[in-house]
Amino acid sequence: MGKMIGRGEREHAIKFAKNFIFATIGLSALIGLAMYTSAPSIINLFNVESAATGLMAIKILRIYSIGYVFHSLTFILVVGIFRSAGNANIGLVLDIICVWVITIPLMYLAGFVWKFSFPVIYIFTFTEQVVKTIICL
């Protein structure tokens, strides 16, 4: 994409970026769905002895599979599109704000103030990805 912009093919680069975004959403949704449905089988590969630990691991993997779309999308937006277009600073600013101003304080509140369970606290790790996606789109 950076080469397209360098050649003055701005409209072609924008179309390529949009197609890349849609492909990322589609593929990551399929991967996330596969992870969600196969979570018990994946956890069984590790021969977990405690039933409670196995159930917790399945919950965490399923939460990750839902957040995977946002994780993939923000990676493509920040690293693949903004950086190749010559804007490396936006990734730095977004990371600092989303991690240190939003996600870490929310996780602290969720765990130590609101006393949420571990799976709910883990959901808060995806606030960074969701906020970045909203800002970038």
Explain what the structure shows.
It is a single chain. The protein is mainly alpha-helical. The protein has one domain. The chain is about 85% helix and about 0% strand. The two termini are about 15 Å apart.
Largest sheet: none
Shape: flat
Number of helices: 6
Alpha-carbon distance between the two ends: 17 Å
In total, the number of domains comes to 1
Stretches where pLDDT is under 50 for at least 5 consecutive residues are none
Binned, the helix content reads over 70%
Query: Could you spell the SSE succession in H and E letters?
Result: HHHHHH
Q: Please tell me the overall pLDDT.
A: 91
Class from helix and strand fractions = mainly alpha
Number of strands: 0
Radius of gyration: 18 Å
Strand portion, in percent? under 5%
Identify the notable features of this structure and list them briefly.
137 residues, mainly alpha, 6 helices
